[in-house]
């Protein structure tokens, strides 16, 4: 079983928008450094603050987890091919959850839940997704589709949507909108 064309489009979207921050065509530690700075600037977490330090620690654990699973040639970079191969292996055994992916999911939820009330609303979601260069209005539309019209999404709901994004071949599945895009 290999990744469908639809799922590959989703994977390449996440690769290019949320991971290959410097647009080098590969994911490396530098991308994570840029993302950390972007996140800390977005949230106003100055260097040395608890949240800044925590962001560094979590993001570098995510990078190390991703690198260890995907960087098969050990060159310190994850190519598009390595990224897709990692997800193909995951598709063959979805019960074998990727630890870094779970860490990333929790990090994204916490980042989007700016009010720290245990739920994400459309504004919180759109602010984070649009900080990656996405159109804010499209992000708000994506939230409406993802939340199926609800005003907020809890961590538990987010976890279900997250898994749906990575596993579903159904273009209408609500989880497909978790990264702020309304169509693939």
Instruction: Round the mean pLDDT to the nearest integer and report it.
Output: 92
End-to-end distance:
21 Å
Order of helices and strands: HEHHEHHEHHEH
Global outline: globular
Strand percentage lies at: 5-15%
Helix content: 55-70%
Low-confidence stretches: none
Structural class: mainly alpha
Total beta strand runs: 4
Rg (CA only): 16 Å
Spatial order of strands in the largest sheet: 1-2
In this structure, how is the largest beta sheet organized? 2 strands, antiparallel
If helices are DSSP runs of H or I spanning 4 or more residues, what is the number of helices? 8
Give structural notes.
With 184 residues, the protein is mostly helical. The chain has helices at residues 5-19, 29-43, 50-70, 80-92, 99-112, 122-130, 136-146, 155-167, and strands at 26-28, 77-79, 119-121, 152-154. Strands 1-2 form a two-stranded antiparallel ribbon. A two-stranded antiparallel sheet has the order 3-4. Helix 1 crosses helix 4 (80-92) and helix 6 (122-130) packs across helix 7. The radius of gyration is 16 Å and the shape is globular. The two termini are 21 Å apart.
Task: Record the SSE blueprint.
Blueprint lengths: L4 H15 L6 E3 H15 L6 H21 L6 E3 H13 L6 H14 L6 E3 H9 L5 H11 L5 E3 H13 L17
Antiparallel strand pairs: 1-2, 3-4
Helix pairs in contact: 1-4, 2-3, 3-5, 6-7
């Amino acid at each position: 079983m290999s990744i469908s064309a639809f799922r590959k489009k989703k994977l390449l979207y996440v690769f290019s928008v949320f991971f290959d921050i410097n647009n080098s065509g590969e994911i490396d530690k530098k991308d994570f450094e840029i993302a950390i700075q972007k996140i800390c600037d977005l949230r106003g977490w100055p260097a040395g603050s608890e949240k800044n330090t925590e962001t560094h620690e979590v993001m570098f654990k995510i990078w190390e987890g991703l690198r260890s699973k995907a960087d098969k040639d050990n060159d310190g970079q994850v190519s598009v091919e390595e990224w897709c191969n990692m997800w193909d292996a995951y598709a063959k055994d979805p019960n074998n959850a990727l630890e870094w992916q779970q860490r990333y999911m929790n990090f994204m939820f916490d980042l989007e839940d700016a009010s720290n009330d245990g739920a994400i609303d459309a504004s919180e979601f759109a602010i984070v997704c649009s900080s990656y260069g996405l159109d804010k209005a499209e992000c708000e539309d994506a939230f409406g589709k993802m939340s199926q019209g609800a005003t907020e999404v809890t961590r538990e709901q987010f976890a279900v949507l997250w898994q749906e994004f990575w596993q579903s071949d159904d273009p209408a599945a609500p989880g497909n909108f978790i990264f702020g895009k309304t169509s693939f």
